[in-house]
Design brief:
mainly beta, six-stranded antiparallel β-sheet
Length: 70
C-alpha cells in the first residue's frame, strides 16, 4: 500500500516493501520517480538510489555505503 505526502511541488505517492533483506521505498510524484533500496549487512548500510523524470536525460543512479564507527 502507499500514502500520499504533500510537498513544495505537489503530492507524491510513497510506498515501502521488503524484498528479502532489502527495504525498497518508491516515491512517485507524477513527473518523476525515486526508488531507494536499503540493505544492512553487519556494520554496513548500503543505499542504492535510482531517479527518473522528464527533466533528466536518463535514469540517475548512485550508491552510498555507510559504515559503523566506534
Amino acid at each position: 500500500s502507499s500514502i500520499e505526502l504533500p510537498g513544495n511541488e505537489g503530492t507524491a505517492r510513497i510506498s515501502a516493501t521488503m524484498e528479502g533483506e532489502e527495504l525498497i521505498v518508491v516515491a512517485d510524484a507524477g513527473n518523476g520517480e525515486r526508488t531507494t533500496k536499503y540493505q544492512a549487512d553487519g556494520d554496513r548500510l548500503t543505499m542504492e538510489v535510482t531517479m527518473t523524470g522528464a527533466r533528466l536525460g536518463g535514469p540517475l543512479h548512485f550508491t552510498t555505503t555507510y559504515a559503523r564507527t566506534e
